[in-house]
Amino acid sequence: MYHSHFGLNQSPFSITPNPAFFYSGSKRGDILDALIYAVTHGEGIIKVTGEVGSGKTMLCRMLEGLMPAHVEVIYLVNPTLSREEVVFTIAGELSIPTEGKRPDEVIRLLHQDLITKHINGKQVVLLVEEAQAMPLDTLEEIRLFSNLETAHHKLLQIVLFGQPELDENLNLPSMRQLKERITHSFLVPPMPPALIPEFLMFRMRAAGYHGPNVFSKAAIKRLAKVSEGIVRRINILADKALLAAFADNTHAVEAKHINAAIRDSEFSSKKPDIAYQPISLAILSMLLLSGLAYWAHWSWKTNNANKVAELNAPATITATAATKKNAGINTTPVALTATQTNTVKNEQDPVSTSSPRSEKLIEPVNSVSTAPPATENTSVLQLRVAQSKKWLAETPDHFYTIQLSLVDNSDASKLEALLKQYAGQFGIDNIYLYPTKLANQARYGIVYNSFNKRENAWQKRKELEETTAIRAQLRTIEGLKSEMERSQSADLW
Questions:
Q1: Inter-residue contact 197 to 220 (CB < 8 Å)
Q2: Which residues pair with 72 in a beta bridge?
Q3: SS3 408
Q4: For 141-167, what is the mean pLDDT?
Q5: What is the DSSP track for 20-89?
Q6: In the CATH scheme, what is the code of domain 3-17+192-277?
Q7: Complete DSSP assignment for 346-389
Q8: Fold of the domain built from segment(s) 380-492
Q9: CATH of domain 27-187
């Protein structure tokens, strides 16, 4: 919307990892160089940790793109795999046939394939994102894969990308063997305030901007304080601030525009101390004025057309109106009445409480249900799929969720029964689905609720494990979307 206003050819602050927007400052370039060196020299297991939104995924994409031609990169799409499933998944990524094979047989085939690649001068690197969500048993299996080696080289190089909880898992006594195998550990730091002006202009230039700095010192100071140096937050706030400046018809982004962006952002924990100026109101006002002008023109044309029709066929119109009146037909539009009723209900009770065990853990993004009305032929699965699409689309990427299980989607009866079980335990409005693939097998991941803070999700996960037999895993919404994209499973909805 604001591209032409600022002379841009694309969005400068998109949160989708784009190598063209990789900023090498704040140690990120140094970390990338070290990763490339460690991988190409077979330096054991490598670990990269950082807060949500710090830039780990961008580093992962850059690492893949800069690998030499002889290095084959494979991904572990779903970190919540079991110990056996991860063996078949890695083999599937290398196109090794696994049908009818036992796990030990698959490992032998995998070893032979890696040796063959090594003889032919090839190298394989496994990139694992959201490694903090990996079960401990699966992490141990990953360690065993690092034993596949020749006298001088590792046959499978492993890079773990994860949030700080990965370090917590590795510090457990049962994980000390894996921890000792990690030869390089990198921490992606927050962006220091002094580098944020440079970062902002770097992204603007990469998007085609040629003018002077659009962000004032006061705007940058405010942005640095609220974002806490988290790159994704910086991008989100900068993007919305540009939109606010566009709505003000100015080319200078001031502190008031940053404050408007803060008010409009889900991660904001503190409200700015100035008048409320949300971006949404500015955009809504512009759209409302345009809509009113169009409606006035359309009403004028419709009224004139109706008057002509009345002159041409008065008897027919009068008879029709009289028939409706005598029959007692209510001519009030049904859609309007339903909308008014729903509006009153939602204002009084913004969170669905259809289940007595539903919990309001955060202010949810998708608090108003838009699922299709249930009928006798509508299954729980169909209803949750409809709700889950909306939930995934509207929940911010930096939010967390708790993965409960992974189910083969070809067994509809089992999936339906599991959904009903979880509905009884946690309330159906807290349960969502997402499609994925494991070793080319279509699956559904079942997740519980969404949380805007990691500590809340982490605490809830512990509570679930203490009160149920479920071995739940922490996931980010961004991770779910990335998994769907890489496994090309969106068509499974």
A1: yes
A2: 124
A3: strand
A4: 87
A5: GG---TTTHHHHHHHHHHHHHTT-SEEEEE--TTSSHHHHHHHHHHTS-TTEEEEEE--TT--HHHHHHH
A6: 1.10.8.60
A7: HHH--S--SSTT----S--TT-S--PPPP-TT--HHHHHHHHHH
A8: Alpha-Beta Plaits (3.30.70)
A9: 3.40.50.300
Tell me which DSSP letter residue 189 carries: P
DSSP letters along 283-345, please? HHHHHHHHHHHHHHHHHHHHHHHHHHHHHH-HHHHHHHHHHHHHHT---S-HHHHHHHHHHHH
Contact 366, 390 (CB under 8 A): yes
**Structure tokens given for 179:** 């921890």
**The dihedral of CA 299, 305, 307, 313: what is its sign?**
negative
CA distance 493 to 490: 6
Q: What is the mean pLDDT of residues 235-263?
A: 94
Report the helix count and the strand count for the chain, using DSSP H and E.
Answer: 19, 9
- Domain coordinates in residue numbering, the chain: 3-17+192-277, 27-187, 282-331, 380-492
Give the Cα separation of 295 and 67 in Å (integer).
57
Encode pLDDT of 421-435 as tens digits: 888 888 999 999 999
Backbone angles phi, psi at 20, to 5 degrees: -65, -20
Instruction: Encode pLDDT of 200-240 as tens digits.
Output: 999 999 999 998 999 999 999 999 999 999 999 999 999 99
Tokens found for residue 104: 């030990």
What is d(CA 225, CA 40) in angstroms, rounded to the nearest whole number?
A: 39
Report the range of poorest mean pLDDT among 30-39, 81-90, 266-275, 387-396. Answer: 266-275
Q: What is the largest CA-CA distance in the chain?
A: 99
Predicted structure pTM score: 0.65
d(C-alpha 440, C-alpha 284), whole Å: 45
Burial 34-45 (b: 16+ CB within 10 A, else e): bbbebbbebbbb
